[in-house]
Write a structure and sequence with these properties.
The structure is a single chain. This protein has helices at about 30-45, 55-60, 65-80, 120-135, 165-185, 195-200, 205-210, 225-230, 235-240, 240-250, 275-290, 330-340, 375-385, 400-405, 415, and strands at about 10-15, 50, 85-90, 95, 100, 140-150, 190, 215-220, 260-265, 295-300, 355-360, 390, 410. With about 425 residues, it is an alpha/beta fold. The protein folds into 2 domains: about 10-340, Glycosidases (TIM Barrel), CATH 3.20.20; about 355-415, no CATH class. It has an 8-stranded parallel sheet. The chain has a 3-stranded parallel sheet with strand order 12-11-13. Strands 4-5 form a two-stranded antiparallel ribbon. Helix 10 packs parallel to helix 11. The chain starts with 10 loop residues before the first strand and ends with a helix. This is Glycosyl hydrolase.
Length: about 425
């Protein structure tokens, strides 16, 4: 069985965006083209990829999970194995690069809540179980991620949300994670939300769910969320946003040693201009790896989106480590250099002795967002040379918890100034 991560060694990977056809490549699957892409990623010294079946392409009817599509996913995983790459599979796509991909059997005339309708949830569980089972015997299969930022369907600003409560989100996550475990027992199965789970007061997917359900906590760090707009390209907050999110995630975990996976992070133009992407990449990764218990870093994304494809937001065309025709970009060179430097090294950042206190009330999550009291206090501490952790207010008096994390001092945002 594949170990979740080599002990003391961070993983380095990329979210695989096929160079030919983007994620629509599943409609015209070309294994040779996939192999070429994977060769380029292996040459960067990466050890894993996160791949994205498109839900309606794989399960166009609730009772039809296309065998040929599942076989193509297995072929991709096997091609990755031949190149020394492990594979994590994101099941419910879901949402990708501003586009939504939901099956027709959940929309319009068949409109049903994708989180609470019993038939829809049963169909999702069948689908996730099928994908997991197809890969269960592959040594390079890491495990399943439920879907890409699927919490964006549950509340605003989505234009047509499937609204649910936190209790309903909890029940849904428990069901679909169990389906993955049934399909591939013992693998690293997890779920992944965009930062609204941490920052948005009315978001039904919660920090506690992110930090306590599944085998690891996934963090998706994007500085276009107001961080870079407020603090600028070179601001402390921009360079350390991923590290901040990792520490925020650790505050909510019940297990002080729970792994945190920086599963998405990228250098979005024009907030991070192309000529500064390599520096941002290096600073972001080094700051993240100064946090304890980081499972790994998976960059978004492997290849630029082709300019032949229409209607993407401008920033989506230039996020790759490689160009659409396979040339390594400066950010790709930076990731390759860090991966090489870290290979074989023991990964043991010192504990963070000073912890910033955060209120665990869900209605106060906006204090943790860019501009909020907790966020800005954290940034001020970093600028002062402190390596802050974050701790829930309810654990400030828990000496055992503080000791397990190496925390010897707690400060409130008000004390920071």
């Amino acid at each position: 069985m594949l170990s979740p991560a080599p002990s003391g060694t961070p993983r380095f990977g990329a979210n695989y965006t096929p160079s030919q056809g983007w994620f629509h490549h599943w409609l015209d699957f070309d294994l040779d083209a996939v192999r070429t892409d994977l060769d380029a990623l292996a040459a960067l010294g990466l050890d894993h990829v996160r791949v994205f079946p498109i839900w309606p392409y794989f399960q166009p009817n609730r009772a039809l999970i296309r065998p040929r599509a599942v076989d193509q996913l297995v072929q991709l995983a096997d091609a990755a194995a031949e190149r020394g790459l492990d594979v994590n599979v994101d099941g419910l796509q879901g949402h990708l690069s501003s586009f939504d991909f939901l099956p027709a059997w959940t929309q319009t005339w068949h409109r049903r809540n994708i989180f609470t309708d019993p038939d829809v949830v049963a169909g999702q569980a069948d689908y996730l179980r099928t994908l997991a089972a197809a890969l269960a015997d592959r040594p390079n299969f890491i495990g399943m991620t439920i879907g890409n930022e699927i919490n964006q369907f549950s509340a605003g600003p989505h234009p047509d949300p499937d609204r649910i409560t936190a209790e309903q989100a909890d029940a849904w996550l428990t069901t679909v994670l169990a389906a993955c475990e049934e399909g591939a027992p013992g693998r690293l199965h997890l779920h992944a939300e965009y930062d609204a789970a941490w920052y948005q007061d009315d978001q039904p997917f919660t920090p506690a769910q992110a930090a306590r359900l599944g085998g690891a906590t996934a963090v998706h760090s994007w500085v276009f969320n107001g961080t870079a707009q407020r603090h600028g390209r070179t601001g402390t907050a921009t360079r350390t946003h991923a590290a901040y999110m990792i520490e925020l995630a650790k505050a909510w975990a019940l297990d002080p040693r729970r792994p945190v996976w920086l599963q998405e992070v990228g250098a979005p133009a024009p907030l991070i201009p192309a000529e500064h992407a390599a520096a941002f990449t290096e600073e972001t990764i080094e700051a993240a790896l100064d946090c304890q218990d980081v499972w790994g870093v998976t960059w978004w994304c492997s290849h630029d989106v082709s300019r032949d494809l229409a209607d993407f937001p401008e920033l989506e065309y230039s996020l790759g480590l490689l160009t659409n025709d396979g040339r390594v970009k400066p950010a790709g060179e930076a990731v390759a250099r860090i991966a090489e430097e870290r290979r074989g090294r023991t990964y043991a950042p010192a504990p963070r002795a000073t912890a910033l206190v955060v209120d665990e009330a869900l209605s106060r999550r906006s204090a943790c967002a860019p501009g909020g009291a907790v966020f800005e206090a954290y940034v001020r501490l970093v600028a002062q040379g402190v390596r802050p952790a974050v701790v829930l207010a309810g654990r400030v008096a828990d000496a055992e918890h503080l000791a397990a994390r190496g925390i010897s001092e707690v400060v409130s945002p008000e004390e920071v100034g």
